[in-house]
Write a structure and sequence with these properties.
The complex is a heterodimer of chains A (507) and B (123).
Chain A lengths: L5 H22 L5 H6 L6 H12 L2 H14 L5 H16 L1 H6 L5 H9 L2 H34 L3 H52 L11 H4 L7 H18 L4 H7 L5 H18 L2 H12 L1 H5 L6 H9 L3 H36 L16 H22 L5 H25 L5 H22 L7 H8 L2 H18 L8 H9 L7
Helix pairs in contact in A: 1-9, 1-17, 3-9, 3-13, 4-14, 5-11, 5-13, 7-8, 7-19, 8-9, 8-17, 8-18, 8-19, 8-20, 9-14, 9-17, 9-18, 11-19, 11-22, 12-17, 14-16, 16-17, 17-18, 19-20, 19-22, 20-21, 20-22
Chain B lengths: L31 H30 L1 H7 L7 E2 L2 E2 H40 L1
Antiparallel strand pairs in B: 1-2
Classes of the chains: A mainly alpha (507), B mainly alpha (123).
């Protein structure tokens, strides 16, 4: 190990220790199953919003966006805008009613709303699918970060994140994780803000040079993907996926059940909008600085780690190394917090629907239940995507995240919105819509990984499925529900009332 | 000497298969007047949601189309930043926060009006 990697190693070690320490300190307050799954619904808006921000801002936001902006320009601004606007859509359509539904997880909501075990099973499969699709790039990105910052082999970062997440989640559940993640939002913000301030001073000291490579400026400053009409379609498809997908991400949805009541859920979401808005001002600033100083990084295909490398490039010597170490700490926090949130959500579903029903592992009482099932679920939730990311490296961090959003938008978004606002939704309609959206979007994803990719318009449609798969899911859901009108659950009216009635007037 | 040890409590999940809302007969859509009030609250909140989302589509969702139809706009520079970078990198975030804040204020006002209405009815 050479001397210049020491700050990076120390930074990663500190983040890991702080994460485990806060988790185990808070673990003393984690007693009941309700603590494990939803922190006993006592988390106040400011803390909860920090936790949501900490959990939501993944490595893709921390590292990926600045790199994409550097290489592709303004059309990549739609990623952070969509990640934030998704919370406005969530606030407007589902935040308070979702909390008032009183369910633990998305499958719980679906079962309570539609009174059907079939819908529950479909939702459980989808939560695990979306969760794993989103966990994959986290592990991959952790490997990339550690190899860029301290020259470790690619598998080290993924394994470290996996182990820390299993230990943290398995020991303290949602209650411990809430404090860890609130801490990690502020760590991530600091880790981007402080280096940026220093780099801006350096930039002004250099006489505020303008960006280089003026030749392609026109495309670089246009907020549209290349290719005329196809580019316009791809941009709108990304907008649909991110604006509507946020509400359907399992680790986001599960957070809303930790609010004390529906009004608190709304105020929490509003604070989240502020926190995300502040954070997402930073990656474009890095990209613009990268445009001035980091063209060599983009040319060398290292744009993914541009945020990590930029301090070294602009400030040679120990100062640059220290700033890089700080950014590395932030990036590692990003992978840890998002993976923890996803692991909690997937483990919650596995704990209720899979490991909670394994008779062989149960011992005296027949089946595992409560906390042991949750812990076993956490191990499975992390082990599977970790294994896949080690076997199949190079899936592409930002792309997998985009696909997870498209999948969530094509399945859970229609289910939640129709379930909350339309009394006529039936169980067969919901299942048909989930299958249509899931197969449509999932099938499109699979074809893009095939060795002979489709080109032209069909290729664009398959690569960015959200703009057709979301309307398809909605149409199927509504049409089949209308065709099975006699299957509208008897309690549908009462349930909708409960979702929209303020807690203060409940009898 | 010391307090008696608390008995062990088996920790389990909550019952999952209880029909929600079953224990609230007082306020549901089958009692006519309550049904009318609730219907109006639902419509009011729905209309509010549609208005906010419409504004979002109009102000933010229209931007790709605008830049597609008038690509020259991207060459405009304000405050040293390209127009797209200024709009989508900076200004969009305060806009989203203000829209969210207005929504929360109005949604809470709708709920308060509804609660007042129910209070009057109970008296």
């Amino acid at each position: 190990m050479t001397a210049d990697v020491v700050p990076g190693v120390v930074a990663v070690a500190l983040v890991t220790i702080a994460t485990l320490a806060i988790g185990s300190y808070r673990q003393r307050f984690s007693r009941t199953t309700s603590d494990f799954f939803v922190a006993s619904r006592t988390v106040r808006p400011a803390l909860n919003a920090s936790a949501i921000g900490g959990e939501y801002l993944s490595g893709a936001s921390f590292l990926g966006i600045a790199g994409l902006l550097l290489v592709f320009g303004a059309d990549m601004l739609w990623y952070p805008v969509g990640f934030t606007a998704g919370y406005l859509v969530l606030l407007v359509l589902v935040a308070a009613p979702l909390r008032r539904s009183g369910a633990y997880t998305l499958p719980d909501f679906a079962e309570a709303r539609l009174g059907s075990r079939g819908v529950r099973a479909a939702c459980s499969v989808l939560v695990v699918a979306v969760g794993w699709l989103y966990l994959l790039p986290q592990f991959e990105g952790a490997g990339l970060t550690l190899s860029a910052a301290v020259g470790a082999p690619r598998w080290v970062g993924a394994v470290v994140v996996g182990v820390v997440v299993v230990v943290g989640v398995g020991s303290g559940g949602m209650r411990a994780i809430t404090f860890v993640q609130a801490f990690q939002y502020w760590l991530k913000l600091t880790a981007l803000l402080v280096p940026l301030a220093v780099l801006l001073v350096v930039w002004m000291g250099d006489g505020s040079p303008g960006p280089v490579l003026r030749t392609d400026t026109a495309q670089w400053s246009l907020p549209l993907a290349d290719g005329g009409g196809a580019g316009l379609y791809a941009t709108y498809s990304l907008i649909v996926a991110t604006f509507l997908g946020t509400m359907g991400l399992p680790h986001v949805a599960v957070r809303f059940y930790t609010n004390p009541d529906g009004g608190a859920a709304r105020r929490t979401t509003l604070v989240v909008l502020v926190l995300l808005g502040v954070f997402y001002l930073l990656p474009p600033a890095y990209a613009l600085l990268g445009r001035v100083y980091g063209e060599s990084l983009a040319a060398a295909g290292r744009s993914d780690v541009m945020v990590l490398e930029l301090p070294r490039v602009m400030l040679p010597g120990m100062a640059g190394e220290l700033l890089t170490a700080l950014v590395t700490a932030g990036a590692f926090a990003a992978f840890l917090s998002t993976s923890s949130g996803l692991a909690v959500a997937v483990a919650g579903v596995l704990g209720q629907d899979v490991t909670g029903r394994l008779p062989g592992l149960a011992g005296r009482r027949g089946t595992l239940s409560g906390v042991p099932a949750f812990r076993l679920g956490a191990v499975i939730a992390v082990a599977v995507p970790l294994g896949v990311s080690l076997l199949v490296p190079d899936l592409g961090v930002a792309r997998s995240v985009g696909l997870a959003f498209a999948m969530a938008a094509s399945t859970f978004c229609p289910l939640l919105v129709l379930g909350i606002w339309w009394r006529g939704l039936t169980a067969p309609g919901a299942v048909a819509g989930l299958v249509a959206g899931g197969l449509g979007c999932g099938g499109a994803i699979v074809t893009t990984f095939s060795p002979a990719p489709v080109t032209g318009w069909a290729g664009v449609l398959l690569e960015q499925p959200a703009a057709w798969s979301v309307p398809l899911a909605v149409l199927v859901m509504v049409a089949v529900s209308l065709a099975t009108r006699d299957r509208v659950p008897a309690h549908a009216g009462r349930f909708l009332v409960r979702l929209h009635t303020p807690e203060s007037v409940r009898p | 000497m010391s307090e008696p040890r608390p008995t062990r409590v088996r920790v389990t999940g909550p019952p999952r298969h209880v029909r929600p809302g079953a224990a609230r007969p007082a306020l549901d859509d089958s009692s006519t007047l309550g049904g009318v009030y609730l219907g109006s609250l639902l419509r009011e909140q729905g209309r509010l949601a549609v208005r906010v989302l419409g504004l979002l589509v109009l102000l933010v969702g229209s931007l790709p189309l605008v830049f597609h139809l008038a690509p020259g706009l991207a060459r405009l520079e304000l405050l040293g930043l390209g127009l797209a970078w200024l709009l989508l990198g900076v200004l969009v975030y305060p806009l989203l926060v203000v829209m969210g804040w207005r929504f929360v204020v109005r949604a809470e006002r709708n709920e308060r009006d509804f609660a007042d209405l129910m209070d009057e009815r109970r008296r």
